């Protein structure tokens, strides 16, 4: 049976798993980044969210404050090291520490899906947004994270695991690089009490643009390759990020968690 109905987006009452902690979520103004930031805040974390879209940041901040949660917003581009420094500085200057870094910002940057159509500019844009951003946000955050240990959560993709035609080569290359970065960083930073893990999402119900693209194609084959026969919802991935941010995952590092409804079992 093939289906693609919405899963229940359940928000459980906070249990204080992150009381006293401070988290920085890049690309945190909307979509998965916002869902992750909301999950962390619900568990007591003070949150810094960064994004390129100032209007989306303003709207997100309003939602956090309406819920009585502490949040700081920074407009910036993770591909620019000076902007990464501003993001980390906002956390340390405002809240005095940084415990959790979620390297969520990234994507295909609306670049062509076919290799023959990809320009140098397209390639650089995707690599900078995904790999450079993850690398330098982590580097800049290290002094603050080393002060008391912490958790780094990188967002990769199942496209870094499989060469399916639906993924562009430049995007797959970037996400595969993040898998390698995650494992290497885990080895380097473990002695400092810093855990580094990654989430590899599968097909997730996302923003309006992604839904519009999904609606234009026959996705029966894709759904039949997902064991659960549906796409995920953002809160299901946010729950995994919360687990990795908390002490519940304290003996996990260097792990790549596939959250894809069983897509890679085929």
Automatic annotation (TrEMBL):
Start and end residues of each Ketoreductase domain: 21-202
SUPFAM superfamilies: NAD(P)-binding Rossmann-fold domains
SMART domains: PKS_KR
GO biological process: fatty acid elongation
Gene3D superfamilies named among the record's database cross-references: NAD(P)-binding Rossmann-like Domain
GO molecular function terms listed in the Swiss-Prot or TrEMBL record: oxidoreductase activity, acting on the CH-OH group of donors, NAD or NADP as acceptor
Alphabetical list of Pfam families matching this protein: adh_short_C2
Family indicated by similarity: Belongs to the short-chain dehydrogenases/reductases (SDR) family.
Name the UniProt record assigns to this protein: SDR family oxidoreductase
Organism, scientific name: Rhodoferax sediminis
């Amino acid at each position: 049976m093939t289906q693609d109905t919405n899963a229940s987006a359940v928000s459980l009452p906070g249990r204080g798993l992150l009381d006293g902690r401070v988290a920085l979520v890049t690309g945190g103004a909307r979509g998965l980044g916002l869902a992750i930031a909301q999950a962390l805040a619900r568990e007591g974390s003070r949150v810094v969210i960064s994004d390129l879209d100032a209007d989306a940041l303003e709207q997100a901040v309003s939602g956090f404050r309406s819920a009585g949660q502490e949040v700081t917003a920074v407009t910036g581009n993770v591909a620019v090291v000076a902007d990464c420094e501003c993001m980390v500085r906002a956390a340390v200057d405002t809240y005095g520490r940084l415990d959790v870094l979620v390297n969520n910002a990234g994507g295909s940057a609306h670049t062509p899906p076919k290799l023959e159509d990809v320009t140098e500019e397209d390639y650089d844009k995707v690599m900078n947004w995904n790999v450079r951003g993850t690398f330098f946000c982590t580097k800049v955050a290290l002094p603050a994270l080393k002060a008391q240990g912490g958790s780094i959560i990188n967002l990769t993709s199942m496209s870094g695991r499989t060469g399916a035609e639906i993924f562009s080569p430049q995007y797959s290359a970037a996400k595969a690089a993040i898998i390698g970065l995650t494992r290497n960083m885990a080895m380097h930073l473990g002695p400092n009490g810093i855990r580094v893990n990654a989430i590899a999402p599968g097909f997730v119900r996302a923003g309006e643009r992604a839904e519009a693209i999904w609606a234009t194609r026959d996705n029966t084959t894709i759904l039949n390759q997902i064991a659960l026969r549906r796409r995920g919802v953002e809160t299901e991935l946010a729950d995994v990020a919360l687990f990795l941010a908390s002490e519940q995952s304290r003996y996990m590092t260097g792990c790549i968690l596939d959250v894809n409804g069983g897509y890679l079992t085929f």
